[in-house]
């Protein structure tokens, strides 16, 4: 039970990552300093830039003025991007581009009284269908629906129209002055008898 608790306990160098609105909020502190920052957007996607903003504050002594080094890589991967940042105002800013989906690690390194290496882990989503491809699929679907609709309308018109013509002659011509039966065509008037 003790071993499980030790494994599950957060590491001292782990940055807390929490979603707040449209950003991922980063927080870490120890007895000497605290690190705060954001990753924007809150749902990073592969191939799209993410903006990282960090601030290192200390509880005593002069203000921290850098430098700050970031290492960015997929979790467990030896390949990584590394950037050394200088302060811009009160924060450090940079943009990074994840090139694949899955969990990614952002390592923050800086030295004040001693070297600190802090890690934040977050998930990168796969890229949605490109807008052009999405619109193409919508147009193909709409065209197919229109074609099937027209086909069904033509079938209905064809099946509700008159069937094949049946012979209209009856074995006995109707008597003069009587109406034809339903579904029969009226008989033409009889020719007058010839006097020959």
Q: Helix and strand layout, with pairings?
A:
Layout: H1 2-8, E1 16-20, E2 23-29, E3 33-40, E4 50-58, E5 68-74, E6 81-85, E7 92-96, E8 102-111, E9 115-124, H2 131-160
What profile does the largest beta sheet have?
Answer: 5 strands, antiparallel
Average pLDDT rating: 79
Using DSSP, what is the number of strands?
A: 9
First CA to last CA: what distance?
Answer: 127 Å
Coarse morphology: rod-shaped
Describe the fold and architecture:
With 196 residues, this protein is α+β, with helices and mostly antiparallel strands. The protein has helices at residues 2-8, 131-160; strands spanning 16-20, 23-29, 33-40, 50-58, 68-74, 81-85, 92-96, 102-111, 115-124. The strands form two sheets. It has a five-stranded antiparallel β-sheet with strand order 1-2-3-4-7, with no helix packed on it. A four-stranded antiparallel β-sheet has the order 6-5-8-9, with no helix packed on it. The protein has two helices and nine strands; from the N terminus they run αβββββββββα.
